[in-house]
Amino acid sequence: MAKSGAHEVQAFDHEMGLFEVTTGRGGRASGKGGNVHTVNLVAKTCTCEKLKIYKLPCSHVLAVCRSRSLSYAAFVDPFFTTVEYRQTYLKSFHPLPDVPYWPPYTGVRIVVDASKRRGVGRPKSSRYPNEMDSSARRSVNVKSCSICRRQGHNKKTCAARGGVGSSG
Predict the structure, then answer these.
(1) Sheet containing 45-46, strands listed edge to edge, beginning at the edge strand earlier in sequence
(2) Tell me: the pLDDT tens digits for 100-143?
């Protein structure tokens, strides 16, 4: 209701129930304002489409109703009335029986294709290795010692340092 107070209403065609509503910011920090929407009171429509989507009057319809001293209740869908709400819960609900007492299922059985099931463990890569992959792997796997700079062992097993089990 507060949002509609900043809107400016002009009668476009009073006989047809058409009104032009220019939105305003109304002291709100957010919102652009200045948008123009057409409200048709006879057809119960607004160009913002919120009335059609939400089945509740938008701020533009509320502004027209306020300026013409009309009740906005005519623009609320009957679904939102207390009469309809009570109709929803008028019939009694019965609890479901326990699973063993359910009637047997006679509908279509869905059989899952076993080949489409996901396997156990880490999924295998579907990527094909090329020549660039093989050269990169070889250079990474070769050990080199940071003390003597020879290949085949590391700093921990270096003979120059006095390590055990050197291979260099």
Answers:
(1) 8-13, 18-22, 36-40, 45-46
(2) 999 999 999 999 898 888 889 998 888 888 887 766 555 556 77
SS3 state of residue 21: strand
111's tokens: 């059989």
What residues make up the domain containing 65? Answer: 3-82
Under the banding of pLDDT at 50, 70 and 90, the label for residue 71 is very high
pTM listed for this prediction: 0.50
Residue pair 158/148 in contact by the 8 Å Cβ criterion: yes
Total count of domains within the chain? 1
Given a contact cutoff of 8 angstroms between Cβ atoms, the answer to whether 59 and 65 are in contact is no
